[in-house]
C-alpha cells in the first residue's frame, strides 16, 4: 500500500516537477516487515551459473550512455554513494572531512555547468565504524544525510551474538539511521537457514526505526545458490537492504552476484509486495563500473531502484572518479587524481 508521501512524489513525477537527481525521502516505500521463514522456498531456489555469467558478460558491450546522458547517470550514482571509510587508521578528522565531502560532493561551478545550479546534490550516506557515528552525526547535522554504522563484529562477524546486538543498539543510540550488519557466514555454509533467520530477526529488532542492510559477504559464500538463498532468508527476516560485501573479502561486488541478488529481490517483491534495496560494495571505484551496476538495476528491477532509497553503492574511492568524469564532461580535460583526495 502506498503512503501519502508516495502519492505526492508520484504526482510530482507525473507533472515533471521532480528532477532526476532530487532525493526522495527515505520512507518513500513501505518498510519490509519480513515474514516467517519459508524453508521450502529457500531450498527450491537455484541459480543457473552459465546463464548468469552469459547475461552479465554481454552487459558492458550492449549498454552504453554518452555525453549528457552519461553525466545524468553519473550524477544519479553520486547521490547513491554510501561514502565510506572503514580503516584501522580512521580518525575523527578524516571522518569530518568525509562528511564535508558528502555534503558538497561536487564543485559549485561543475554543478552550474551541468545545469543543476540551485539543486541540492549530496552523497547517499556516510558509512563508518561505531566509534565515529557520533562525530559523523554532528558533522552532518541539518544536512539530512544519514549515518550508516557497520556493525555485528564487522567485517568477520564472529563476536558473541549478545555483543553484536549491543553494538547495534549503541550505534542507534549515537544517532545512526542505518546499520550495516554482517551475517554469520557459517550459517550459510552449513545450510543452517533457521540460525541465519533468527540472527537477522534479532538485528532487525535491535535496529528499531533505523534501517538495516544485511551484508552477505558473498565472496565467502562459495556458490551463487548460497547467495540467492541467503538473500531470501535475510529479506524474510526483515532486511531493508541486502548488500554484497564488506570490502574486506578476497572477492567483493561482482555483476554475477548482483544479478543473483537482484533476482532474489524481484522474487521477494512478487511474493510479498515489499521492495528491498540493493547495495553493491567493495572494489567499485570507476564511473565505468558503476554504470554497469545501474544498467543492471534498471533492466532487472526498473527505474525505482535507481534512487537512494532503494540503491546504494558502498565505495571509498568511486566519488573521485565520478568527479573527474563530470569535470571532463564540462571542461574537456581530465584533472589528476591528487586533486580529488577524498572519496
Ligand atoms: O562498504 C563499503 C566497502 O567497504 C567499500 O569498499 P572499497 O573501499 O573497496 O570501495
TrEMBL record:
Keywords for this protein: Lyase, Plasmid, Schiff base
Any Pfam family matching the protein: DeoC
Pathway where it operates: Carbohydrate degradation; 2-deoxy-D-ribose 1-phosphate degradation; D-glyceraldehyde 3-phosphate and acetaldehyde from 2-deoxy-alpha-D-ribose 1-phosphate: step 2/2
GO MF terms held by the record: deoxyribose-phosphate aldolase activity
Catalytic activity, as annotated: 2-deoxy-D-ribose 5-phosphate = D-glyceraldehyde 3-phosphate + acetaldehyde
Domain of life of the native organism: Bacteria
SUPFAM superfamilies recorded: Aldolase
Enzyme Commission identifier(s): 4.1.2.4
Enzyme class: lyase
PANTHER family given in the database record: DEOXYRIBOSE-PHOSPHATE ALDOLASE
Protein family: Belongs to the DeoC/FbaB aldolase family. DeoC type 2 subfamily.
Name of this protein: Deoxyribose-phosphate aldolase
Lineage summary: Bacteria, Pseudomonadati, Pseudomonadota, Alphaproteobacteria, Hyphomicrobiales
Encoding gene, per UniProt annotation: deoC
Amino acid at each position: 500500500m502506498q503512503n501519502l508521501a508516495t502519492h505526492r512524489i508520484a504526482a510530482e513525477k507525473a507533472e515533471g516537477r521532480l528532477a532526476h537527481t532530487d532525493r526522495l525521502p527515505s520512507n518513500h516505500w513501505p518498510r519490509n516487515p519480513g515474514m516467517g521463514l519459508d524453508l521450502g522456498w529457500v531450498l527450491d531456489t537455484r541459480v543457473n551459473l552459465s546463464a548468469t555469467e552469459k547475461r552479465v558478460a554481454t552487459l558492458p558491450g550492449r549498454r552504453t550512455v554518452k555525453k549528457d546522458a552519461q553525466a545524468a547517470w553519473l550524477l544519479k550514482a553520486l547521490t547513491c554513494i554510501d561514502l565510506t571509510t572503514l580503516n584501522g587508521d580512521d580518525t575523527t578528522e578524516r571522518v569530518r572531512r568525509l562528511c564535508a565531502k558528502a555534503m558538497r560532493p561536487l564543485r559549485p561551478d561543475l554543478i552550474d555547468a551541468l545545469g543543476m545550479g540551485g539543486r541540492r546534490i549530496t552523497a547517499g550516506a556516510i558509512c563508518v565504524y561505531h566509534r565515529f557515528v557520533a562525530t559523523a552525526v554532528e558533522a552532518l547535522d541539518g544536512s539530512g544525510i544519514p549515518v550508516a554504522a557497520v556493525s555485528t563484529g564487522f567485517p568477520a562477524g564472529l563476536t558473541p551474538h549478545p555483543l553484536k546486538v549491543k553494538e547495534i543498539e549503541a550505534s542507534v543510540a549515537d544517532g545512526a539511521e542505518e546499520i550495516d550488519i554482517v551475517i554469520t557466514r557459517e550459517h550459510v555454509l552449513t545450510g543452517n537457514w533457521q540460525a541465519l533467520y533468527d540472527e537477522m530477526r534479532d538485528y532487525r529488532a535491535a535496529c528499531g526505526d533505523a534501517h538495516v542492510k544485511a551484508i552477505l559477504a558473498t565472496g565467502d559464500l562459495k556458490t551463487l545458490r548460497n547467495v540467492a538463498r541467503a538473500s531470501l532468508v535475510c529479506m524474510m527476516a526483515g532486511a531493508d537492504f541486502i548488500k554484497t560485501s564488506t570490502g574486506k573479502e578476497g572477492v567483493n561486488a561482482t555483476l554475477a552476484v548482483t544479478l543473483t541478488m537482484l533476482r532474489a529481490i524481484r522474487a521477494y517483491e512478487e511474493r510479498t509486495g515489499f521492495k528491498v534495496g540493493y547495495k553493491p560494495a567493495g572494489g567499485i571505484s570507476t564511473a565505468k563500473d558503476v554504470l554497469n551496476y545501474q544498467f543492471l538495476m534498471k533492466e532487472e528491477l526498473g527505474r525505482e531502484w535507481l534512487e537512494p532509497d532503494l540503491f546504494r553503492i558502498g565505495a571509498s574511492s568511486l566519488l573521485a572518479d565520478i568527479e573527474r568524469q563530470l569535470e571532463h564532461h564540462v571542461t574537456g580535460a581530465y584533472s589528476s587524481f591528487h586533486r580529488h583526495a577524498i572519496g
